[in-house]
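Researcher: Please predict.
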Amino acid sequence: MAASSTTQPPDRLATRVGGSADGYREIAQFHRERIGSLLPADWSWQGKRILDFGCGPGRTLSEFAAEADEAEFVGCDIHAESLEWARANLPQFTFVQNREEPPLDLPSSSFDLIYGVSVFTHLTEHWSGWLAEVHRLLKPGGLGIFSFLGEALWQPFGAGTHAEWVEDETGMLVTLPARSWDEGGPNVFHSEWWLREHWGRGFEIAELRARDTWRGAEGHGWIVLRRQAGEVTAEQLARPNPSDPREARALARNLDLLMWEARGQAEHAERLQHELAGVRAELEGVYAGRSWRLTAPLRAAASATRRG
């Protein structure tokens, strides 16, 4: 039986998937343990086909090296460099690259289990399309296991610096929408009621842990989905429920938060413009000064030396 991989990617790839490079293996082991604890008591890996959705360089996958002798594991991600490293260093797994939007180039009803760690926590525009794609790829009755951001990480992630968590007004709430993927991307928080309403349209919610702990601190929540029969579309998953007043309150709060962040960004840009104007004014004074004119020949000589 193959041993668990101890190979670790370069720091720039290790930190891209969250956490520090030093804690890479510890995080991987925790995620593997947590996914295992969420599987049914009678679960067997024998003959199963599993997809790691958003695998990065294979951090979590690497902890399933032993199970790869009896099951087929596939990882997908949008980041080409991470996949290139994973293919070269984790040959017991298969890797495919996805685009920003679905679908994946994989057959329908072909996986027994799809899991994703810190993926739907960052998907803003295309979340419903990807959740519908999970439904398409799972076999009837297949399982999906995904982490999500809830109340426990509202303050630690800085989203609550100006407001408290309000369960009935959260729904699906996006913060830091303009943050680049190299910096972690946007953060997406979910209320339990919203997950049950929207994700429950294509799946049975087999288990939902709104709070989990790691290193003695509260962290991501976890949701376990069982694929229901029939087809489901992105539009069906995303459509607000007009009979639930929480939907409108959540949309209004999300808009307020986005406007608050936009104002903050505008104020930051205005401060930078003011600072730049001051620096330019100081430089213009220097350039116009006698000392600047007198040292011009020295600067020209230094420049010629660098070119030579």
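Model: The longest strand covers residues 138-148.
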